[in-house]
Amino acid sequence: EIVLTQSPGTLSLSPGERATLSCRASQSVSSSYLAWYQQKPGQAPRLLIYGASSRATGIPDRFSGSGSGTDFTLTISRLEPEDFAVYYCQKWSTFGQGTRLEIK
Amino acid sequence: EVQLVESGGGLVQRGGSLRLSCAASGFSFSSYSMNWVRQAPGKGLEWVSYISSSNSTIYYADSVKGRFTISRDNAKNSLYLQMNSLRDEDTAVYYCARALAMIQDYWGQGTLVTVSS
């Protein structure tokens, strides 16, 4: 069974800065099924990225995904106040443990 | 607008049963696979179960296999999760989510299930 490990566990940044979140798989995965979600407190997760690099409907272009094989990255180019949340990567039935993006 | 509304959560005793429902609207329900995903308090996301659009393919997480049953009624635009032999570790918010392969593109607001001794 594939394990997805996200790093860092918590990322402290300021609005306007660039955020880079990592998702590492225990074995090579098809990028077709790699997704990223954002979850804010008290809300359901929201799909951000699918197929490793395609933005979901309505997602701002400051969010981008990249990677292949075992290493995948979610990048937020310029943080907005509403971007501070928890981010999860997913492949098939496995979710990563999440990265909490907090305001510095 | 895609809408998914879960119901049926609540407080249940350990070993008891509960049936969750998810009412779908705003899209052609019968054309999409669906998932249940749960989140224990303060924890991450855990996939629970998957059902294909025509009921022909069903998957379960090992943690619920043999205890939970996913089903759907395409005529009623509804998804269900029958949960039996509930354990403390089943306490969570349960989300239904529309699936594209195993990617969840739309999620409901969730329903809380609390298992108590």
General description of the model:
Chain A is mostly beta strands and 104 residues long. Chain A has strands at 4-7, 10-13, 19-29, 34-39, 46-50, 54-55, 63-76, 86-91, 94-95, 99-103. Chain A is globular. Chain B is mainly beta and 117 residues long. Helix content of chain B is 0%, strand content 56%. Chain B has no helices and eleven strands. In chain B, the strands form two sheets. In chain B, strands 2, 4, 5, 6, 9, 10 and 11 form a seven-stranded mixed beta sheet that branches. In chain B, strands 1-3-8-7 form a four-stranded antiparallel beta sheet, with no helix packed on it. Chain B is globular. The termini of chain B are far apart. Chain A binds chain B through residues 32-33, 35, 37, 39, 43-47, 50, 56, 88, 90, 92-98, and chain B through 37, 44-47, 50, 59, 61, 95, 100-110.
Could you provide a short overview of the structure?
The complex is a heterodimer of chains A (104) and B (117). Chain A is mainly beta. Chain A is built from no helices and ten strands.
